[in-house]
Amino acid sequence: MKRILLAALLFLAVTLPGFALDLGDKALPLSVDKWITGEPVDPTVVDPETFYLVEVWSVTCPPCVRSIPILNDLQKRYADQGFKIISFTTDSEEEVRPFLEQHPMEYSSFLDKEGESVINYMALDNRITIPHAFLFDRTGILVWTGNPLDNLEKRVQQVISGELSGEIAVKVKEARDELQEAFNAQNISGMISSLETLEGLEPGNSQYFQIHYRLLTELGMGDPYEIEELLDRWFTGSQEDAESLIVLSMVSLDQGQPNVRNPELALRAAKKAFAIDSDLKAQAGLNLTETYKEIGRIDLALKALDELPALTTEPEDQEMIAAVRAFYTRLEKLGENPDAVTVE
């Protein structure tokens, strides 16, 4: 059983961010067919007064459309700090020109020549979806990569303050390498040590905490006090990260670990996630209703559900919300009169 779990954890470890372009790396060259907005910019040229964001997008990507006004605003407000945005797409000029008339970009963007920039930055064999952004500090080192809809302004501010830096990114890369070596050797104490280092360097990265939690619980490596301390650190490091807080809320109600379940922390994390204005607002709301249900407050779950339809226009989300409401309504009626259920 231990070997099976370690294999699963090893899979998680090797799927931690580790792509062709990774934290601690220098910017890669751009392959430009034509600049279509703004002035030509080269992120490989290190300038102590400048830091760059490189973003990949497409005209057929709805989240990319949502990211444009955010990037326009950030470019405008942080230009005097030396912030420069560069975006690129593999779409044709015939597709891009009319798109930009409706969704103007107030930063530099170009058409990728034969997809070479995508290969350099996205590693087509193992990269995730777009929009995807790469943030480099003033030394030209990649310090953050992710969805530009994911609290990007905070990352920009962290580069300006020095909280995100090339020095820290290099340490993260070294710690990840050590984590991988420990997994390969099935060295559990080495895994935990590397994870603790990474949690300190990237307190908002929930993957480290998830793996650490599973090591402590499913392999019996930690007592309830250690697990509670880990979950508290996870909560502290995730104050502005809705996705991390949602995962923490679910983990805190882990049905498989009744001796370490923490309903109070689960509710705090769920409420905090829902309070954050993010692209995950509807998902955070569903998580909050589920948390209310788990602690026996169907009335509050139904009340929270009332806020969710206005948060999304996606038909699938609306159907999910309606289905959850119907289920919770049945649960509420059952709780009021359990004797109404008969056995045939």
Query: Could you describe the largest sheet, including whether it forms a barrel?
Result: 6 strands, mixed
| SS class | alpha/beta
Query: Approximately what portion of the residues adopt beta-strand conformation?
Result: 5-15%
Count the DSSP helices. 14
> What is the gyration radius calculated from CA atoms?
23 Å
- Spatial strand arrangement across the major sheet: 1-4-3-2-5-6
Helix residue percentage? 40-55%
The helix/strand series, from N terminus to C terminus, equals HEEHEHEHEEHHHHHHHHHH
Unreliable spans: 1-8, 10-19
* Nearest-integer average pLDDT: 87
Globular, elongated, flat, extended or rod-shaped: what is the shape? globular
Distance between the termini: 40 Å
**Strand runs, count:** 6
Task: Give the gist of this structure.
This protein is an alpha/beta fold and 344 residues long. It has helices at residues 2-14, 62-78, 93-102, 116-122, 152-161, 166-184, 188-201, 206-218, 224-237, 242-252, 263-275, 281-294, 298-305, 315-336, and strands at residues 32-37, 51-56, 83-89, 108-112, 132-136, 142-146.
Q: What does this entry look like structurally?
A:
The chain is α/β, with parallel strands linked by helices and 344 residues long. It contains 14 helices and six strands. It is globular.
Write the topology of this structure:
Elements: H1 2-14, E1 32-37, E2 51-56, H2 62-78, E3 83-89, H3 93-102, E4 108-112, H4 116-122, E5 132-136, E6 142-146, H5 152-161, H6 166-184, H7 188-201, H8 206-218, H9 224-237, H10 242-252, H11 263-275, H12 281-294, H13 298-305, H14 315-336
Parallel strand pairs: 2-3, 3-4
Antiparallel strand pairs: 1-4, 2-5, 5-6
Helix pairs in contact: 1-6, 1-8, 6-7, 7-8, 8-9, 10-11, 10-12, 11-12, 12-13, 13-14
